[in-house]
Amino acid sequence: xxRHIPMHALPExxxxxLPEEKVCKYCGVSYLILHExxxxxxxxxxxxxxxxxxxxxxxxxxxxxxxxxSLNQELEQYKIDSKSKTESKIYxxxxxxxxxxxxxxxxxxxxxxxxxxxPYIGL
Length: 123
What we know:
Layout: H1 12-15, H2 31-108
InterPro entries: LEKR1
Protein name: Leucine, glutamate and lysine rich 1
Keywords: Coiled coil
């Protein structure tokens, strides 16, 4: 905190005052520093409010980090699931194509129907 250094000496009549005339009868603080004391109280209140805000920021940051981590895990699981579904679709398309080609082959060569067996479809 910056310390205020007065540019001019106190007026002579204040210097001649008795100590009990210079202090607040309620709190005992010198009138000469009372306004500085009140200003410091206001600064302390403002700083306490700011500290509460930052304390809340730390808590919010922690919750957001946890949420981000959770969302990243979900994204990775969706990627794995999507890849698995895509591979399954490709497999079933290939099996369907194989079955269609087998049927077409049977139609083209009717005399070989006895020797051509059904393809094995392992599902």
